[in-house]
Amino acid sequence: MDTVLVDRLQFAFTIMFHYLFPITTIGLAPFVAVYTIEGIRGDADAAKAAAFWTKIFAINFAIGVVTGIPMEFQFGTNWAAFSARAGSAVGQPLAMEGIYAFFLESIFLGALLYGKRYVAPWLYGLSAVAVWFGSWLSGFFIVATNAWMQHPVGYAIAPDGTIQLTSLPALLFSPYAWWQFGHVLCGALVAGGFVVAGIGAYYLLSNRELVLARRFLNAGVIVAFVFSILVVFPTGDIQGDDVTKYQPIKLAAMEGLFETTKGAPLAIIGMPEDSSHQLLDPIYLPDVLSFLAYGNFHASVDGLNAYEKELWPPVDLVYYAYHIMVGLGTIFAGIATLAALFLWRKRLFDEPLLLWSLMLAMPFPYIASEAGWVVTEVGRQPWIIYGLMRTSAAGSPTVAAGEAIFTLLGFAGMYFMLGVLFLYLVLREIALGPSAVTLEHAAA
Length: 444
What we know:
Helix content: over 70%
Shape: globular
Strand order of the largest sheet: 1-2
Oligomer: single chain
Number of domains: 1
Largest sheet: 2 strands, antiparallel
């Protein structure tokens, strides 16, 4: 088996498992901060909510740290050629993530978990805000690094062939990076909103924690509604414009567009057939892709046939992942809008079917976010740094395929155990409820 392929499978597995936890910490951080501040101001119910969500946040943070560390080592063990050539560029924002964001988040999370009795109320509230800021800052540095690999800026090629970063501000303030981060952030907040609303719905349907259940539903539904819109427009729309401008082959793969077409249709469903270069059994919206890509219903959109086949990404995977992301996003917007309407009319708490929908929807924003990253990363292929370095040239020449398979199996076993532990801890906290968490803190 090709070593680079196994390396890609290993990195894909580890990063997709790890990414589940930053989604939650980014999405829950504002809830933790707001409830903590309200609790300091004398709101006893908010104090219970803050203690409960802080514990859920901490579990996610801990598992995220454990699963994130191996990925740093993989740059050296599996991707040595990439690190040697581009390490001076990608290393700077990754180092900033560790020095500034991770330590900010972890130090103040410790204060948030154990410092309530030992620090002034204003400092305790500041700790919650710092955890919020640190989680978002951490996400920004990671996304900025990835965005540079998608659209490299502020660099120069040295005489020895290495890629040298000439402007750190160009990397950090690239519009491509900021809009990609905005889209990722909105997706995480959709997940956070649905988790808070879903757990509120669970408590209400179980006829327990009724005051906090209604509070969770209020906050979660509003956040899910607002960010299910923002994830589409403007963040998703402008991210799509960037893909159209800088990665047109990815756009063609996302839409299953094999032939360059004037007045290109938007495929709602269909099955891409790579061998015959066509989309089977499609349902189209005529001319809509041209309008979305260029603001003109009659504009010509390049198909995959406009490029050498060796530059195509895996079309099937990109196409299906993109449509899973878009399809789920549409469902989220529908559920959140309906829930917000019933909330506004003061009928949400008495609609069991809608409460069940909110509760059962909780896992699906994670699936949508993972699908979005598949589109982003697989759609970039065959490049590890778009237009500069191919993935096939980025591996470690001294690592054999068997070694990568062995460690991949090890990661699979270890992450299975971590996943079981995570589910046990989180489900245990949900079963105990916010009141039990508060009593536990008081006893400590």
